[in-house]
Each structure stands twice: as structure tokens, then as C-alpha cells.
């Protein structure tokens, strides 16, 4: 399973998801891509969603938007990807 969080550093909704990821110790499995610092990632987000809304969790290349929905998905699926890098 490939996961990537598209975010903006100053976005409170992005911070909510990042905080959850850190609290659950999932940051090794989920790389963060700041779309304000990486124009290429911004373009990828635009291609996938026709927008630059963050946070967006890419799950095997498919976008999931809305911080609450992302957190629910992570809670429901964390055992599927937790430790996959170990």
C-alpha cells in the first residue's frame, strides 16, 4: 500500500492530520508532501483532484480529502500499513 499526505504547513486541517499521524507513530509509513514547497506535488494534486485542497491522503494514487475522513480511514486501516517498512 502506498500512502502520501499532501498538505500545507500553515493549514490547521493539515496540522490535525499530521498530529494524528505523529501521535499514532505512523510518520515512517506516510510521507508528507508540502504543496507550497514542492510545485511538482502541487501539480500532482491538481491532476488527481482538479483542485489544491489539503489535506489530501493519496492511497495507492487515489485521493481522499477532508481531515476527519482521512483520520477515520487511517484508524480503520492502520494495521494494514503499520510497520510495512520494517
The global form is globular
Oligomer: single chain
The arrangement of helices and strands along the chain is: EHEHEEH
The total of helices stands at: 3
Strand order of the largest sheet: 2-1-3-4
CATH class: Alpha Beta
Rg, Å, rounded? 12 Å
| Major β-sheet profile | 4 strands, mixed
**CATH hierarchy: architecture:** 3-Layer(aba) Sandwich
Which superfamily, in CATH terms, is the homologous superfamily? Glutaredoxin
Q: Approximately how much beta-strand content do the residues carry?
A: 15-25%
Which terms would index this structure?
single chain, 86 residues, alpha+beta, Glutaredoxin, four-stranded mixed beta sheet, 44% helix, globular
Describe this structure in words.
- By secondary structure, this protein is of the alpha+beta class.
- It has a single domain (about 5-80), classed as Glutaredoxin (3-Layer(aba) Sandwich).
- About 45% of the residues lie in helices and about 20% in strands.
- It is built from three helices and four strands; from the N terminus they run βαβαββα.
- The protein has helices at about 10-25, 40-50, 65-80; strands at about 5, 30-35, 55-60, 60-65.
- Strands 2-1-3-4 form a four-stranded mixed sheet, sandwiched between helices.
- Strand 3 and strand 4 form a beta hairpin.
- Helix 1 (about 10-25) packs parallel to helix 3.
Task: Explain the layout of strands and helices.
Blueprint lengths: L2 E5 L4 H12 L8 E3 L4 H11 L6 E4 L2 E4 L1 H15 L5
Parallel strand pairs: 1-2
Antiparallel strand pairs: 1-3, 3-4
Amino acid at each position: 500500500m502506498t500512502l502520501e499526505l499532501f498538505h500545507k504547513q500553515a493549514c490547521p486541517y493539515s496540522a490535525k492530520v499530521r498530529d494524528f499521524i505523529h501521535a499514532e507513530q505512523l510518520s515512517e509509513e506516510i510521507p508528507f508532501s508540502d504543496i507550497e514547497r514542492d510545485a511538482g506535488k502541487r501539480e500532482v494534486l491538481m491532476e488527481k483532484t482538479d483542485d489544491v485542497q489539503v489535506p489530501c491522503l493519496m492511497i495507492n494514487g487515489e485521493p481522499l480529502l477532508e481531515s476527519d475522513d482521512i483520520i477515520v480511514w487511517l484508524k480503520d486501516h492502520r494495521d494494514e500499513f503499520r510497520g510495512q517498512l520494517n
